[in-house]
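User: I would dearly like some help making sense of a protein record. I have put the entry right below:
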Amino acid sequence: MKYNNLLIETANNMVQKGKGILAADESNPTCGKRFDSIGVESSFENRNEYRDMLFSAEGIEKYISGVIMFDETFRQTTTCDQKINFPEYLSSKGIIPGIKVDTGAKDLAGFKNEKITEGLDGLRERLVEYFNLGARFAKWRAVINIDDTLPSLGAIEANTHALARYAALCQENGIVPIVEPEVLMDGSHDINRCYEVSCQTLDILFDQLSRLNVMLEGIVLKPNMIISGLSCSNQASIDEVSNLTVKCFKEHVPDKVAGIAFLSGGQSSDIATEHLNAMNKNHSDLKWNLSFSYGRALQHNALNAWSGKNREDGQKKLMERAKNNSLATMGKF
């Protein structure tokens, strides 16, 4: 493949020890909800200013290897006098620019309470443009609903096939695909049900990736942790989550995968860090680095501190969280 060396190098840099990925790819409606919580209007200018506050935090490149952006953000610039495009600005700091390319999860026809992620139409052409604008990795999120009977085999197969098609298109165009099959935390299921569904999903996912000739050394897996449902009465401990998550991945993720960058999936900032730290502290015999690709778990405190005007306060909170998660990738938090 034309881009093999670039893909492998980029993927390895994304999940290097001591660093992780900042997910700043919230759609405008989602960003609007976050801004509502702090009483700030979700205007084009305010969204630009907020992302600029995050990206320009001094020293952020010590802890952050890459940033996932939404299309609007990818085309915006720094708010300083020089007005540098964000992909160019991040690259100048040694941070890899990334782009969210799916168009969201929609109802899956014929399957009640299940979703399918869309966005494959026209994706090849969009990837060519994003590569030329500086993107070197992309993200596509598949949503797997879970309860006593869900997910159906049909929903898993449809979503993992879409992930594999997306991944193949990314690699064709020199862009590392973040492959994100998220088994949701929503529900009353226990940790064992999450383990069962996650193992099944990963098996089907890697079968689909193999069928579509996706090079595993040039992908980053962004999975959920094995965790109790949010409304489950028996919440698993830090060590239970750590041990069962590692067991799942050892048995169902091929060694060739470049690395694993967890999603936080609705966990609190502190708990997401503690889970990651326990995995790296208690398990030293892993074939891949375990890192993070957090959105809310990195941004929540920074957003509240910023509140539309306090740049330095927001940056301070972002740096605290980024440093803590950096330590967690080494089991030193």
Q: What stands out?
A: The chain has a mean pLDDT of 97.
